[in-house]
């Protein structure tokens, strides 16, 4: 039995297909504690490439990396009521060390706003101290009821940025600057077309003044939140007493933000681009961009393989499969791992002074003169990335609908699940009613709005706002 036999077709059982991809591509394994996973080297390498690029972008705007503790005292966390209410069902608590009961319960961080805010209180004295622009790459824990590798796990990896500014305008502008960095990154590196917008009152981050998001659509028509950026105004500053002396010599509360993306981006990549043969990885975050497979390991084949690897390694992450597995197994493994390009080299090819280059996405094979390999690899990688982005974009367009009534909405959910743009009043009670009826929720209020009078699709109240709703992971 080959590895390919273990992958359930995605149109038969999308959930099982997803799990088969994760396990067969050796991205992760299940850990002993329910809801946690072991990041295997190939899966962690994808995260490292994501981290490397985003870290570079953050540093361009003067964000500094820090690391804050894992444990948060209960009394400190409980200061911001809306925040604690939002996270309380998911918080894991440490109450004992050995045989000793702790004098105060300690929460394992679900996020670090309160620790950061408590620290900022001691750091911020004057407008000259601002802005403070911090980010940490860390793990957090949220005790999820339903889990799935990368998408929703009890412990996950992420980056969380936290900043304090001396004006509302600066803080709000920075919130949107981060959102634009996220959008550019997921579009150019992960090849995910996303919709940018603001979260509704019901869906905004607990304790935030406003939350902004990038939303993508998976192959099966369910939405996935790929990143969020939160503008707190002075909400946290008032609770945690973060004050500074402004230019007029008066005390003023600081204006803060927080923002983050997580390892669920790996889940988004899998569910947007992959197929029944395994992973399909965007080239810029593929740990191996080009794999060389030798049909026979003759001296000449080995020599040319090393030569091509050395030539391409200046631009790409290249390896040579030197295992003693069969040629068919090597091909299967390269497909499952989603390696964008495969170069096959055998004695007969070398007699003709050619190699065979294959694309993972289209299965297209091309005989290429050895002297033209670098040029052809350049063009094929570019075409490969363009194609998988366009396939994801076409899927989103095909699954995006606009309706005006709850009955139309239900009909579309049954016939063409995806993003559904509706006129919406924005009231929490109305959104809760929609969720109860359809198991869907709002995804975002898109920035571009038509300025016209409408009726809410559910409660029929007057509105000028359109909102994307969907089923979501």
Q: What does it look like?
A:
One of its GO terms (cellular component) is cytoplasm. The protein has three domains: 3-273, BirA Bifunctional Protein, domain 2, CATH 3.30.930; 290-380, Anticodon-binding domain (Rossmann fold, 3-Layer(aba) Sandwich); 400-470, Translation Initiation Factor IF3 (2-Layer Sandwich). Helix content is 35%, strand content 28%. It has helices spanning 14-24, 41-60, 74-77, 81-87, 113-123, 168-188, 235-240, 264-273, 299-312, 327-336, 347-351, 373-398, 406-415, 428-438; strands at residues 28-30, 37-39, 64-65, 71-73, 93-97, 100-108, 132-141, 155-165, 195-198, 210-217, 223-233, 243-245, 251-253, 255-262, 290-294, 318-321, 341-345, 354-359, 365-369, 400-402, 419-423, 441-446, 454-455, 462-463, 466-470. The longest helix has 26 residues, at 373-398. It starts with 13 loop residues before the first helix and ends with a strand.
**Count of helical stretches:** 14
> Can you summarize the main beta sheet?
11 strands, mixed
The radius of gyration computed from the alpha-carbon positions, rounded to a whole number of angstroms, is 25 Å
Number of strands: 25
Helix content: 25-40%
Q: Which structural category fits the helices and strands?
A: alpha+beta
How are the strands of the biggest sheet laid out side by side? 3-7-8-14-11-10-9-22-25-21-20
Low-confidence stretches: none
Number of domains: 3
Strand content is 25-35%
Q: Average pLDDT across residues? A: 95
